């Protein structure tokens, strides 16, 4: 019996040891970090965020960006807006190239002003084009189809003659020389875009093409600038037109000015267009893939008479007149020279030319990312020097180094 009791004591002792061992091993597997740490001041601060600063205590300097405490400017510029819109002529296939352009325009300017954007096409815009562009534009977007009669051969055009010209231009390898659609595009931009029903709501436009770039911040309302300074038409790049595309354009212009002398402005910019007081055209023009301008001027009787007169001459189809010389000649002859504006501060690229503002201080202050060596303004093929001379303007400091 005594032996039996001893065995029972051994078993109970062994059980107690096992239970103790179990508790010791299971408690050491609990991660120590889960237990509240010992705080000598007794405060229960383990529950607050380790980042929250203590009052009166200097905060550690951040070692990564942002490196300074400057606040970002307000997202949207305060104040009223002009009756203005961006306008783009495009095909559905231009979607990703126009997306890039929009991104540049929004980042550098329109995110602060939220102006509308009108898209025009000779076909219906598809859903993808609308979805992507409306997501990128900060203002309202509108999509318009061009009426057939504004994108087709007028009945006074001899189709055989036009076809023969296209063949000849193809042989001569003139750029877009054999293209019908390019001719419709040039004629549409010359005489119709500003009359599209969607454009009738607006007074000012800024034309944007696919694949353009903007290189500097534009911190003010360019439309307001145009209005307050009595400007009607503006440019950033100017150059000489291919002679082969406009052999008889100047004759048609002279025919117009002889028929409608009342539409020619006093104090115009003839000196920009001609070196012999109007006898011949020097082929200088403002590059119209960028334009900020006044739609009411384009819709005026003077401009419509001008367009109709050129259209009847047939050069949009019998030659390959571009909307750039057509707009430029109109602006230079039918506006006072003070109504034209050169936007030195809008840094711009459309293949193959760059306008990068002359003046390092400006470029630094406006976060420009263009290489000043690429600036075309003072190159021999640019007409911008001639514009400065026509207007008695002093060229910006440092222009000699960019020639
Ligand atoms: N809807 C439509 N838009 C066109 C057509 N052809 C050109 N465009 C647009 O008209 C504008 C001028 O055409 P571009 O092809 O850029 O002509 P360009 O600037 O002389 O030549 P690039 O050096 O090719 O840019 C652009 O906004 C084009 O998207 C067309 O057939 N249909
Ligand atoms: Mg283009």
From TrEMBL:
GO cellular component: Golgi apparatus; membrane
Record protein name field: Glycosyltransferase family 15 protein
Signal sequence range: 1-29
Keyword rRNA-binding in record: no
GO molecular function terms attached to this record: alpha-1,2-mannosyltransferase activity
GO biological process: cell wall mannoprotein biosynthetic process; protein N-linked glycosylation; protein O-linked glycosylation
Keyword Transferase: yes
The family this protein is said to belong to: Belongs to the glycosyltransferase 15 family.
Positions of region (Disordered): 34-80
InterPro entries the record matches: Glyco_trans_15, Nucleotide-diphossugar_trans
Active site (catalytic residues): 291 (nucleophile)
């Amino acid at each position: 019996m005594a032996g039996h009791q001893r065995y029972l004591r051994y078993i109970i002792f062994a059980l107690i040891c096992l239970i103790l061992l179990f508790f010791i091993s299971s408690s050491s597997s609990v991660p120590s970090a889960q237990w509240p740490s010992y705080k000598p001041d007794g405060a229960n601060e383990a529950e607050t965020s380790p980042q929250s600063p203590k009052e009166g205590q200097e905060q550690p300097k951040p070692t990564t960006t942002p490196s300074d405490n400057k606040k970002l400017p307000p997202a949207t510029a305060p104040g009223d807006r002009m009756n203005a819109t961006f306008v783009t002529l495009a095909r559905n296939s231009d979607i990703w190239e126009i997306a890039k352009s929009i991104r540049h325009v929004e980042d550098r300017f329109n995110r602060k002003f939220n102006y509308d954007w009108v898209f025009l096409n000779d076909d219906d815009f598809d859903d993808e084009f609308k979805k992507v562009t409306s997501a990128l534009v900060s203002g309202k977007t509108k999509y318009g189809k061009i009426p057939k009669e504004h994108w087709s051969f007028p009945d006074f055009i001899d189709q055989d003659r036009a076809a023969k010209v296209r063949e000849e231009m193809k042989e001569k390898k003139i750029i877009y020389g054999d293209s019908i659609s390019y001719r419709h595009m040039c004629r549409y931009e010359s005489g119709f875009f500003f009359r599209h029903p969607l454009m009738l709501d607006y007074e000012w436009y800024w034309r944007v093409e696919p694949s353009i770039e903007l290189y500097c911040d534009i911190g003010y309302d360019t439309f307001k600038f145009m209005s307050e300074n009595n400007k009607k038409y503006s440019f950033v790049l100017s150059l000489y037109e291919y002679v082969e595309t406009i052999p008889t354009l100047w004759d048609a212009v002279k025919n117009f000015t002889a028929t409608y002398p009342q539409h020619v402005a006093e104090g115009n910019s003839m000196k920009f267009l001609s070196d012999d007081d109007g006898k011949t055209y020097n082929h200088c023009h403002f590059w119209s893939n960028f334009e900020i301008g006044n739609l009411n001027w384009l819709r005026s009787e003077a401009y419509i008479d001008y367009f109709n007169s050129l259209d009847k001459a047939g050069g949009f189809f019998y030659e390959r007149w571009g909307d750039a010389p057509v707009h430029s000649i109109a602006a230079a002859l039918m506006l006072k020279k003070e109504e034209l504006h050169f936007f030195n501060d809008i840094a711009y690229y459309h293949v193959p030319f760059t306008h990068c503002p002359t003046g390092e201080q400006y470029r630094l202050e406006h976060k420009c990312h263009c290489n000043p060596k690429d600036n075309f303004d003072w190159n021999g093929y640019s007409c911008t020097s001639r514009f400065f001379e026509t207007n008695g303007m002093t060229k910006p400091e440092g222009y000699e180094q960019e020639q």
